[in-house]
Amino acid sequence: MHGWKRRIQRTVTDLLALPQDALQRVARLTCVGGQEVVVEQAVSLLHVDEKEVEIDLGEMAVRLEGDAFTVQLVASGEVHVSGRVDRITYRRLQPPGPGGRG
User: Fold this and answer.
1) Which end of the chain is more exposed for a tag (fewer CB within 10 A), N or C?
2) Which helix H or strand E contains 46, and what residues bound it?
């Protein structure tokens, strides 16, 4: 049942020329001036230190690299990070194995 809902959402999104995140549950990352990052639809924080923050987005993870990072807010599905952002990278997370999360 879940698959047909996703197909309908994609079709409506395409027909109305809406951005993917308007109807679908996909992560959105907003970086303001290289000093503040807001990640929506975040699952959890994987790693936090002064020079690196990594956030689980479900099937992907986003890594912020830079300096003087502080996590300002962790709310339901949303993470706010401040600091100097030098690089943003994404990586695919391995699917959960037997007994893993999922």
Assistant:
1) N
2) strand 44-48
